[in-house]
Each structure stands twice: as structure tokens, then as C-alpha cells.
Design a protein that fits this description.
five-stranded mixed beta barrel, Rossmann fold, alpha/beta, OB fold (Dihydrolipoamide Acetyltransferase, E2P)
């Protein structure tokens, strides 16, 4: 008998497992426990157990990415797997290739989990739902470019409220690419100045409406800067988009009716309000006119005209006294001003210059009072009673009787 290493033993057992056709593909019912998902690799590791036993299991990313629901601890499932041995530890395990809920279908379970997740995030809260603007200026329609829903909504909007601008943001409403297409169209419409967005499609089977059950569409509605009216399918159809939207309409046609008022009703209401306003105005006018008549009668009884006449006479008297006082004051001030002008004239340098004198300044504008302040070649400004001139000093004599040659 030969001696085996641990690695050889584990490899031999693994080969025996692989050679057994009964272990290559097995269906097992059990309960999930110790579920973990490695976010970097995408592989899922968990255990499957019943009342008496437990077995380890792994589901690699290529298979885990196909799941329509999120496995959770305590969930009863039916799994498809092959039985293998993990050689480094010598432990046998299940390599799971498919996983289905035991009882509830995978699609239904995924939808239920999605609803529970969005409910916890507040997507369905009534407090966050916004009112629909009563008279929108711009309306966005997010639907298929070729569907009947677009035609119905455009026709009703044109008939009920032709004053609004209507823009269609086409998208796919069915197929694998539809959720992303719907979300992008909602985002474009929300950023394009729309006051309200109508989103939906005509009726169909539940799988045809599945795009409006996806989380990416719910997130786009939740993040929309303007209210969204959802109208998916028929009245009996309900989807996640309906629950997240600010308002659910049973059909696309009903969504168009809920989005805008009827212009004919508005015209009737406006005519009624105008009639009421006219009646109120004339009633108020009559009331004020009667009050004015009463006040005029009271004024006439109190001889207002005589009071006004007395006040006018008093005003004229005061005005005459004011004018006389003002004239006396102006005469006195004028006499004072004339006396000051005469005194100022006697000491004015201009008057002195008029008598034949002149003033001599250096280049800096300083008055020259003595020949000692001068030097040969100095430039001087001489001001006369009329005009001035510039001179250059040739010689300077300090004697009292000498005269400078300029």
C-alpha cells in the first residue's frame, strides 16, 4: 500500500466526484444561510441546509449575475449544481449554476424585493409627491415614438389645452434596452424646461410592461425636477413607476386629461368671474357715490365756502407782510454790500495798479519785495493793471536810490 500526500488524497477524491454522473448535476432543496457576496469578484458564497445537515456552496459571478432576485439568509430555494471537492481544504461543496425560489417565482420575488427596497428609500412616500401645475406652459411626453399612446395624448392635449407647448421625448418602452432609454428620456425632459412630464405606454402583457418595473426608471422619476404623471398600460395594470410618480393615471389618455384643464371650462369660468367682478365693481361704485353725496351735504351744511374765504384773506394779508419785510431786508443788505465793495476797492491791489504801480513775482509766484531776493539771470513776471510781461534780471543793485536794469 502506497503512502499518499494530503494533496494527492484530495485530488483523488475530487476526481472520483467528477467521475460520478450522479454528482455532475443535482437538484437540491434547502434553506440559505451564511450568505456572502464578494463585491470585487462577484462570486457568492453560502451554505444550504435542512433540519439535519448543511453543505457549503459557491455561485460564481458568471451565474450569479443572471439572477433576477437577491438571495437572502432564511430563503428556501431549489438549486442546480455539481458536487465538487475544494482541494486546498478537502471540503466538498456545491458549484451552483442556477438558483430559484422555492414556491414564489424568481421574477415575482425580484419585484417584491425591489418594491421593499424602494419603499425603505422613501420612493413611494406620499409626502414627497408634488402637485401638478394647474396651467402648464410646456408639457413633455416620454413614450414610444410610434405608439398609439403618443397619438392619443397629443390629440387630447391639443383639444383640451392648445395654449401649452408639447414636446415628445421618444424612447423604447419594451425590451432589454427600454429601462435605460426611458430613464434617459425622463432626464432630458426634466432638464428641458418642462412644467410636467407624461410618461407611459399602451397596454400589454406583464412582461411587456416590465421596463417600468425597473429601479433605474424609478430613480429617474424620483430625481425628476418636475412632476411626473405615469400612465402605463390599462387601468388594472400597476407598476413601480406608477407608485413613484407624482400622479398615476389609468391610461395615457387619462394622463393627458389630468395634466391640463379644459380650455372651454376655463372660458366659461372666466366669463362667470368677469360677470361677478362687474357686479361687485358697480355695487362698490354705488356705495362710494352715496357716501360722497352724504359728505358733500355735510360740507354744505357747515358753510365751508365762508371758511375758505376767511383763510384766503388771511393768506393774502400774511403774503403782503412777508413781501414788505423781504423788501426791507433786501434793501438793507444791498446797502451793506455796496459799503463793503467801496471799502474793498480802496485796498484792492488792482486799484493800486491802476495808479501806475506794478507787481513783480518770481517763477514760483512769490511776490518780490526787495532787490536782495534777486540774482542775475532770474526770470520775473511783472503784472500791470492791464496785462503782464516776463523779464530777465541783468544786474542787481542793493543801494536804496539805484534802479535795476530790467
Amino acid at each position: 500500500m502506497s503512502i499518499l500526500t494530503v494533496s494527492q488524497l484530495n485530488r483523488y477524491v475530487a476526481m472520483r466526484f467528477q467521475a460520478d454522473p450522479k454528482l455532475r448535476l443535482v437538484l437540491i432543496r434547502g434553506e440559505i444561510s451564511n450568505f456572502k457576496c464578494n463585491f470585487s469578484s462577484g462570486h457568492c458564497y453560502f451554505s444550504v441546509c435542512d433540519a439535519e445537515s448543511t453543505v457549503r456552496a459557491v455561485m460564481f459571478r458568471s451565474y450569479a449575475s443572471r439572477l433576477k432576485f437577491t438571495p437572502e439568509n432564511g430563503m428556501h430555494v431549489i438549486l442546480q449544481a455539481s458536487v465538487t471537492v475544494y482541494e486546498p481544504s478537502g471540503v466538498y461543496q456545491l458549484n451552483v449554476t442556477d438558483l430559484q425560489p422555492d414556491g414564489l417565482g424568481a421574477q415575482a420575488l425580484a419585484l417584491q424585493q425591489r418594491r421593499e427596497k424602494l419603499a425603505k428609500l422613501g420612493y413611494f412616500d406620499a409626502e414627497r409627491k408634488r402637485p401638478i401645475p394647474p396651467m402648464p406652459k410646456k408639457i413633455g411626453i416620454v413614450t414610444s415614438a410610434s405608439g398609439a399612446a403618443k397619438h392619443d395624448m397629443l390629440q387630447i392635449l391639443e383639444r383640451r389645452y392648445p395654449l401649452a407647448e408639447v414636446c415628445v421625448y421618444p424612447c423604447l418602452v419594451q425590451g432589454d434596452s427600454a429601462p435605460q432609454s426611458i430613464a434617459e428620456a425622463l432626464t432630458i425632459a426634466g432638464n428641458d424646461g418642462c412644467d410636467v412630464i407624461l410618461m407611459g405606454r399602451g397596454g400589454g402583457a406583464s412582461e411587456d410592461l416590465s421596463a417600468f418595473q425597473e429601479e433605474i426608471v424609478a430613480h429617474a422619476i424620483y430625481c425628476s425636477p418636475v412632476p411626473v404623471i405615469s400612465a402605463v398600460g390599462h387601468e388594472t395594470d400597476h407598476c413601480i413607476a406608477d407608485a413613484v410618480a407624482d400622479l398615476r393615471a389609468p391610461t395615457p389618455s387619462a394622463a393627458a386629461e389630468l395634466a391640463v384643464p379644459d380650455i372651454r371650462v376655463l372660458a366659461q369660468t372666466l366669463a362667470l368671474r368677469k360677470k361677478q367682478l362687474d357686479g361687485a365693481f358697480f355695487a362698490l361704485f354705488d356705495q362710494k357715490q352715496q357716501k360722497l353725496s352724504r359728505l358733500m351735504n355735510r360740507l354744505q351744511m357747515q358753510a365751508v365756502d365762508r371758511r375758505v374765504e376767511i383763510q384766503q384773506e388771511r393768506f393774502l394779508s400774511l403774503n403782503r407782510r412777508f413781501r414788505a419785510a423781504m423788501e426791507r431786508t433786501l434793501t438793507a443788505k444791498q446797502q451793506d454790500w455796496q459799503m463793503l465793495c467801496a471799502r474793498l476797492e480802496t485796498v484792492s491791489p488792482i486799484a493800486i495798479l491802476q495808479r501806475g504801480y506794478s507787481l513783480v513775482y518770481d517763477p514760483e509766484g512769490k511776490l518780490i519785495r526787495s532787490s536782495g531776493d534777486l540774482r542775475p539771470e532770474d526770470r520775473l513776471e511783472i503784472r500791470f493793471a492791464e496785462g503782464s510781461c516776463t523779464a530777465v534780471v541783468k544786474t542787481v543793485e542793493l543801494q536804496e536810490e539805484s534802479s535795476d536794469e530790467i
